[in-house]
Amino acid sequence: MDEKIIPPQFDESFLRWFQVRTEEAWQNYPMRTFEEYVAGGIGGRDWQHGTRWLNGLSEQEIASIEQHYQMRFPPDYRLFLQLLHSVDRPLMGARYTDSTTMIPVTAPSFYNWQTERSAIEQAYEEVIEGILFDVQHNDNIWPAKRGKKPATEEAQEARIRELVAAAPRLIPIIGHRFLLAEPHQNENPVFSIHQTDMIIYAPNLYLFFLQEFAYLLNLPQETRTAIVGQKNAITNKRYAHYEKIPFWGQFL
Predict the structure, then answer these.
(1) pLDDT tens digits for range 52-86
(2) Rounded Cα distance, 248 and 246, in Å
(3) Is residue 89 part of a domain?
(4) Cβ-contact 200, 189 below 8 angstroms
(5) Which of 59, 108, 58 is nearest to 88 (CA)?
(6) What is the Cα–Cα distance from 10 to 120, expressed in whole angstroms?
(7) What phi and psi, each to the nearest 5 degrees, are found at residue 161?
(8) Which residue segment(s) compose the domain that 43 sits in?
């Protein structure tokens, strides 16, 4: 396979191409030091030099994960888990603990469904806590079709948790990016979620990988522009459908 040509669809050829290109980039990655974060005065997280993909998961391992989380992975994400799954080291960076003190931090990159269950649970919890924060600080956030906003913060939290539990499941991919798990099909959208600030980040996993990791894949600017154009065209075409997604669609 010519590694300069992007395979045209989300299949094994594409994921193997993605693996080769990302691992090549990580082998020469200019990893930032903690001192550079401090000198720059801005926190963040980044890849580690030498990062590599782990071996994929077996069907039995995937089935066990699905049983634990009581959901089914869509076919395209299941293929990703079978071939790549996660990487062998976390992101590293720095953050402020107050207005003047910065400390080193590590964080998951692609979630490892076997070893990072606490981080995955935290990703789900942060979605709920973010929605709840906005609901409790902005009366306009509460959707009228959900009935009257509960009077107490405890009742509001209980109702939000109930609504999220009844909503289509989300799959945390990396950071604040979540794949819609339902319906059980290819081409489900990828959300970016920060509190109730939710957008369709990409209409499918294929364009998500190309857009999110364009810098790591060293894609030329004209290719990046074409990817964004394709992403926007598909998203706009499907937007009315996205707005009808139970619960999540009301925040778009």
Answers:
(1) 999 899 999 999 999 999 999 999 999 999 999 99
(2) 6
(3) yes
(4) yes
(5) 108
(6) 24
(7) -65, -35
(8) 12-251
Rounded Cα distance, 2 and 121, in Å: 39
Residues 108, 114, 118, 123: is their CA dihedral positive or negative?
Answer: positive
Quick check: is 1 in a domain? Answer: no
pTM for the structure as a whole: 0.93
The verdict on residue 3 lying in a domain is no
Examine the pLDDT at 2 and tell me if it is beyond 70: no
Q: Is residue 119 part of a domain?
A: yes
SS (H, E, C) the chain: CCCCCCCCCCCHHHHHHHHHHHHHHHHCCCCCCHHHHHHHCCCEEECCCCCCECCCCCHHHHHHHHHHHCCCCCHHHHHHHHHCCCECCCEEEEEECCCCCEEEEEECCECCCCCCHHHHHHHHHHHHHHHHHHHHHCHHHCCHHHCCCCCCHHHHHHHHHHHHHHCCCEEEEECCEEEECCCCCCCCCEEEEECCEEEEEECCHHHHHHHHCHHHHCCCHHHHHHHHHHHHHHHHHHHHHHCCCCCHHHHC
C-alpha span between 229 and 6 (Å, rounded)? 16
Report the distance separating Cα 209 and Cα 240, nearest Å. 24
